Every structure is written in C-alpha cells, then in structure tokens.
C-alpha cells in the first residue's frame, strides 16, 4: 500500500466516528498532499455517495461536504475566484482534473450574468485586477455592447460614451461602473483602451 492510499483507511475511520479528524501532520508532505486530498474526495463521491464525477459536480452541496467530513480537507483546495461562498463544485474539479471545464470567457459571462440578475450582489473581490482582470473586463464590455445595447457596430460607442454623465449612468445600469472606479480613469479611457481603433479623435470630436 503506497503512502497516500493509507489516507482512505483513516478517512473511513473518520466517517465511522472512530477518529475525529486527520492528524495535523497528515498533509505536511507537499509531494503527496494533492494526491491524498483527491483520494479522500473521490472515495466520498464514488463509494459513499455513489455518484459519477459529473453528477457530483452538479449535485454536491455544502450540507454534503459537512456530512462527508470534507470540510477537513477544504483548506487544501483553493476555490476559483468566481466561486461563491456556498459553492463546492470545485471540490469535484480538484479531485477529477480531467473533467471538462468552462472556458475563461464562459466563466466570466456566468459571473456577469449572475451580477446582472441579482444572484450576486457584486463581482468577486479583485476580479478586475491584473492582466487577467483586464481580459475579464473586456469580455463583460463586449457582452454589454453586443447583447445588452445590441450595437451593430462598435463605432457607435463614442457617441454613447462621449457624455460622461450618460456613460456613467449606462455603466451603472449594466453593473460595470466598477470598471471605471477601479481600472480606468474615465469611460473615454475605458473605451479607447479596450478598442484602440476607436481612439481616433475624429470619432469623438464632433459629439
């Protein structure tokens, strides 16, 4: 029996109540930590719940995590930035790395649509920071332009964003004012940074 596989025996004792928790030294060895956590989560899903990985990703919830004592390994599974407090689907994705994932664009649009619908009160903390954050911002603005404002041509943007007050109202309506609050100096700056082809003064001069 390899070192990591013994973890399942200890996990079974925890499930049966013979043992309260894992030893504080159980996950000290970084070489085996990920493998051990994966074995615990897989055993819980396949042998206790008798779920497929796909089913587990859909159905696993916070109550299951508590009942399966998976909170004991939670600190070793970093949640993705878009995960809400009650989300636990990423436990399953951690245990089964081969499961197909949403693309970055799909994840961003999922978050944005939840913000628009009120499921989320706001975007995750630091969501628009760094280069990755700028990419997320662009995906959201593209979606706003094409699907919410239904612009046939992006060259219509300068006429919409030329008046600062109107631009702020629009960004507030579509829950993207945070972009100008945290990432760009002004709506004009946002549009011309995201769409350099619109930085030509002729688009803005006579508006």
TrEMBL record:
Pfam families: DUF4046 (PF13255). InterPro entries: DUF4046 (IPR025119). Residues 108-198 form the DUF4046 domain. It comes from the Bacteria. This is DUF4046 domain-containing protein. The lineage of its organism: Bacteria, Bacillati, Bacillota, Bacilli, Bacillales.
